Amino acid sequence: MRYYFRTLNSEFTRESPNTACAGKSEYSYLALWQNPYLSPVQTMTTPQVSPASAAALIAKFLKARGVSRVFALCGGHIMPIWMRLDAEGIQIVDVRDERAAVYMAHAHSELTGQIGVALVTAGPGVTNAMTGIANAHTARASVLILSGTPPQAQENRGALQDMSHIEFVKPLTRYARTVRNPDLVLQELDEAVSRALGHGSEPGPAYLDFPVDTLRARVSPAVQLPEFFQPHAKQKIRPEQAAAQQAMDILWNAKRPLIISGRGARGANDALIKLLDRTGALYLDTGESRGLVPESHPAVVAAMRGSVMSQADVVVTLGRKLDFQLAYGSPAVFGDAKFIRIADCASELRDNRRGAAEVFANVSCALESILELARERTPQTDREWASQVRKQHEQRADKLITSMQQAPAGSDGLMHPNKLLATLRNALPEDAVVVADGGDFLSFARVGLPAATYLDPGSLGCIGVGTPFGIAASLALPDRTVVVATGDGAFGFNAMEIDTAVRHKAPVLIVVANNGSWAIEVRDQLETHGKVVGTQLQFSDHAAMARAFGMHGERVTKAEDLPAAIARALANRPALLDVLVTPEAASSDGKTGLAWVPDLQALGAWDTAEKAWREKS
Ligand SMILES: Cc1ncc(C[n+]2csc(CCOP(=O)(O)OP(=O)(O)O)c2C)c(N)n1
Ligand SMILES: [Mg+2]
Questions:
Q1: Which ligand has the nearest atom to the CA of 417?
Q2: Per-residue pLDDT tens digits for 553-563
């Protein structure tokens, strides 16, 4: 039943909440809300969303594919899907901004290895979702975004929320289609999910939308072939023997081998650890593949990142792009090192640098083949070099822990961010899930809060993901402690999602490092331009904001109060701690030049090296 209401200033319509199954209803919003400004002026019958409809098929498909939770924000253009998801028992995590829905689907996918699903309404629902889609695109996260469009008869006639979504989502998705024919819904879903999961291509977001009349239309039972409901088995790509042999020869001859993993190496821990043990190579992880190799392994030299990159004579990338974090693989930073590239998708196989060996294969399969081919052959690794670098790494890592604990307060009397992180670190269990976000604070947290399961804004630098990522993580992994360590600026983007956390009882702990500014930008302005413009915030009381939404919230100003406050917050999740920290603490990202965006490389020192190298050659 659709009611037309007249308000003080305007007319609008609302659908009855039982539209999906009622067809005709005497339900009255007037009675429900007892709003004196609303009065029904006309009634009309709205179409039912039957179990034989395309919308129902979408829900059945998702359920068959193991989707138990969808992140969504409602709207008439998607309501048929919404109601049928509910009918199928799929949980709808209703958020406060579509961007957050996509971020949550992204985190869900990254942490579960399954497809993450976001459902957003037409027009502004999709435009709001765009940053989330862009982030999933860059991160190569398997997200399916579903939306609606106006009924076909109203398309391009100035209909409510009418936009040609496909044109603007296409460059950021692996697949983007409008499905107008109800009989094609199932196979389009199958294709979109496959593309998102990266079966045969690079994983990433896939997008489908449906005119709302298509969603309500009946689907012929004949086209509902059972095969489309079956999940695809992920098939591993095995390497060409010759390519694996070439890789093995180069690696076994290396004196100073370095292995770097990325997204495509996830799940390859066993083979990777065997390879590290066998070759004595050193290892760097990146944010994309945290936790593959335990910190205690003698190959781990994270604290020596910069120097080991310039010392290695052979660099193996495992499912990792040579992006700005890895100096684009430039000889200016890596010297004469040979590269071995191993990946199961083109974008991670030869971006920026060609490999002396290029192995197109699933990473674990490739490593197993290499190990098999090597048999008893003795690697030429300089063990002395490797153990020296590891020793230096350990010294640095130990020094970091001590310096974090002793980090002095600023001249403003406020706590150093590292003091906060050191205290938090002591309170977290070993298997905590850490989500880091912000500018300076992200830089501190990335190093100071080690965790085997870790998420951050990634190489898109998409700050603001923290709270949505944390909420999705705490729902996906309810037995693990999930903490979001975020700057105050980054927190503001999706702060409203604390409401979502409370309503959905998502047991997340959000720790806001409140330095009253976009501090990394303040420092850049001061150092580069000598003036601070538009980069100061207030020391707003985010804890009071959390309490306003029914969340446990405490503001902490003194370091000595932190341990007890953290304990209370952990016991009362969802919870938020607003911790005042000094904006004076310069992070490594701030100091290395990331903020001022050098011309040739991401970091100042690499930029200088790159300039010198280009001029010399
Ligand atoms: C969506 C988005 N907007 C702006 C930026 C630029 N940016 C990067 S870090 C940063 C400051 C973050 O401030 P905050 O979260 O408070 O961390 P702090 O540096 O103060 O520790 C900004 C504005 C970005 N990367 N992404
Ligand atoms: Mg800040």
A1: 1
A2: 999 999 999 99
